[in-house]
Amino acid sequence: MSERVALVTGANKGIGLEIARQLASEGSTVWLGARDSGRGEAAAAELRRAGLDAKFVPLDVTDADSIGAAARQIEADSGRLDVLVNNAGIFVDDAPPSGLSLDRLRQTYETNVFGPVAVTQAMLPLLRKSTAARVVNVSSGLGSLTQNSDPGYEYAAAKLLAYNSSKAALNAVTIQFAHELRDTPIKVNAADPGYVATDLNGNQGTRTVQQGARIAIQLASLPGDGPSGGFFNEDGPLPW
Length: 240
Ligand SMILES: NC(=O)c1ccc[n+]([C@@H]2O[C@H](COP(=O)([O-])OP(=O)(O)OC[C@H]3O[C@@H](n4cnc5c(N)ncnc54)[C@H](OP(=O)(O)O)[C@@H]3O)[C@@H](O)[C@H]2O)c1
What we know:
By secondary structure, the protein is of the alpha/beta class. The chain has seven helices and eight strands, in the order βαβαβαβαβααβαββ. The chain has a single domain (5-237), classed as Rossmann fold. α1 packs across α7, α3 (64-78) packs parallel to α4 (102-127) and α4 runs parallel beside α6 (161-180).
């Protein structure tokens, strides 16, 4: 097979765009999924101007029709998928747990949990055509129940009902898919990029997108004897 074919969701900016840039820099053909065509096209054009093989595909991870159309477009153009990075995510908590609306909770789960599930299900036929497919779910250290319940955790004050529980659920989703696919070449892992300066946090994060993208790139490039069903940052395994 030629170079790898990758899809990154939410790739028009932030960590997703940087993951797409790094995958393409390593020689992959990268599909940049974005829900807004203008923003997605602009991001793909930026990478192409740098000489990279980047293509835009319309993809709203909360919209089943959009997901299906994206799968058909990638199938028609590329025929398979070697890397899927479920990166699209939102942070919309605007109140403590006692006051958070169920609408915000549902909205968060639609994007951060049901989105990656639906995209993974839709892309699995293409991932099965790869000899060594890798699925990376972009989670968060805030999704670690062990860390989040530790009063000494660096971000213990961040008790975000929707965001944190959605990432804990995404970690659980990662384990379920990894188990089902354990006898295939497909590996499914969750990545914690750390606290990265992006629009998600008003650019308050202490790490760069280059640093934040690193663990996703590592998990996208795992060797055949690498782990599946794990949760990692660039220093190694994280506690669930
Ligand atoms: N920044 C951090 O410190 C940090 C830490 C841990 C984990 N993460 C995770 O890293 C991932 C990327 O976040 P980021 O920090 O790079 O944030 P960001 O700059 O806000 O980027 C989020 C991306 O997700 C896209 N998106 C949101 N809803 C979508 C939908 N329904 N369909 C398709 N795309 C959608 C956004 O598109 P639009 O431009 O159209 O809104 C944007 O491209 C998220 O999963 C986030 O939870 C971030």
